[in-house]
Amino acid sequence: MSSSLSTKATHSTGSGRAASMADLMKSTKSTFISPKKGENLEGTITKLNSYEILVDIGAKTEAVVLEKDKRLLRNIMGILKVGDKVTVSVLNPESEFGNPVVSLRRFMEDKVWDKLNELQKSQKVIKATITEVTRGGFIVTADDAQGFLPNSQASFLETGQTPLGKKVAVNVLELSRLQHKIIFSQKAGQSIEFEKEIGELKTEQKITSTISNITTFGVFVSLQGKTHLIEGLIHISEISWEKLAEVPREFKAGEKIETVIIGFDKKAARVNLSLRRLTEDPFEKEMSKFEPDKKVSASVSEVTANGVLFDLGNGIEGIIKKEKVPPNVAYKEGQTVSLTVSMVDKKRRKVILAPILKEKPIGYR
Question: pLDDT tens digits for 73-93?
């Protein structure tokens, strides 16, 4: 009996001798993979909690997901579950504990960008949170992605509130994964409603509006449309007839001001307004004083690549074009110069000037 059992349990080789355990191990091909650093491998999540994330990638042992970014970990916990198929990046083929160490960062980024591409195509409105205020707009976070909401694409109808932490409804306007650029907009999809709201408004109409935000390029206001408040902008060039380097500090959010409508920007869903056009244009009033060949005295206000600018008083600006600047003559800001009026350029709102020369330099025209 024992002989029979012994015979059944014995395996023989082609030569008839018994096969050892070592022979059997050699004859069995391993199905395990040997991961390499930097390699991207398919796997299945086998464990997922706040302490440990394991992925079966076909190695001898399960791979351990290493992520130090808490926000990314929260996203992983919120989006993925045990049994989900994922792609991992190998950080270390084998740790001191014998497990491959991998990352899900690239996989999660792919999911976010795929979703953003779909949102851009559909122009679906999503909620975003303002996390930072910058010179040109706002940094916002939406659907696990951080992007930029420019002032030109933001709506400032509410006043007296800090924008930080505020939730706003946005669309994905522009995307570039290569440049890692995400641009959001509050304006997309508002043009149809905007056209309804401006139905009873017209250019040159005076209207009272409320200041909602002050930026480097102008003042945003809210004004009454047909049924709802709509946005308006007084560009810095429309604040005063004088050339302004910055928006005056006397403007305050919540203040009511009278403005005049000068146009409608349907693409931006915004009414263009003016303050300066409520008063007479000093250029129109003063230009009669600057007849051709009249001699004037003015101080240099700025030296530019296009010529020399002069302050002629009452907000009137004069210019000697660069080709009319005499050779070997250098003008300095604040310097008072005797000049002759060549002509008045109404379109550019400048008085064209020429220097008074005692003698004409060679080659000067």
Answer: 888 888 899 999 999 999 999
Q: Which ranges of the chain have pLDDT less than 50?
A: 1-17
pLDDT score for 262: 96
pLDDT at 26: 56
Q: List the one residue out of 315, 307, 313 whose CA is nearest residue 331.
A: 307
SS (H, E, C) 68-102: CCHHHHHHHHHHCCCCCEEEEEEEECCCCCCCCEE
The distance in angstroms from the start CA to the end CA of the chain is 127
| Residue pair 37/90 in contact by the 8 Å Cβ criterion | yes
- Nearest Cα to Cα of residue 346 among 290, 294, 287: 287
**Do residues 316 and 351 touch, judged by C-beta distance below 8 A?**
yes
Provide the whole-model pTM.
Answer: 0.53
Q: What are phi and psi of 309, to 5 degrees?
A: -95, 145
For 209, other C-beta atoms within 10 Å of its C-beta total 24
Query: What is the C-alpha to C-alpha distance for residues 350 and 318, in angstroms, rounded to an integer?
Result: 5
pLDDT tens-digit readout, 214-250: 888 999 999 988 888 889 999 999 999 888 889 998 9
Q: Number of helices (H) and strands (E), helices first, in the chain?
A: 6, 20
Tell me the HSE value of 3 on the side-chain side, using a 13 A CA sphere.
0
The domains of the chain, with CATH numbers, are 41-110 (2.40.50.140), 123-185 (2.40.50.140), 191-278 (2.40.50.140), 283-355 (2.40.50.140)
Strand partners, 302: 309
